[in-house]
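ugh ok fine here u go
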Amino acid sequence: MNYVAILVAVIASIVIGFLWYGPVFGKLWMNLMGFTKKDIDSAKKKEMGKSYFFMIIGTLVTAYVLSMLMDLTGSVGYVAGAILSFWIWIGFVATTTLSSVIWEGKSWKLWFLNNAHTLVSLLVMGLILGAWV
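structure:
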């Protein structure tokens, strides 16, 4: 396992998330969630450090497990890493997050926005990990 590649994949995922839910789609996400600027400012004042910590740990686990699965399946190279990431996304992430639409009443637009982020993040992590195998 290449721990430097795992760390780089984590950093890339965090940057993607920052851009995705910030300057790129931040306003759309806020609208779809029903948040106001005041809600966001209030959340920033609360335990954001704790939230970021847990998000980083979760991303680290994801990158580590993705690296382990690449090793177990013999996925070598950036294309193989991206393909495995896609199948993980469609088989586990996209399907399990459907419950947010089906049972929680979230919109399909929000589901698509969040899942597109996860797909892009997983693909980039797979590309990085696959390239550094």
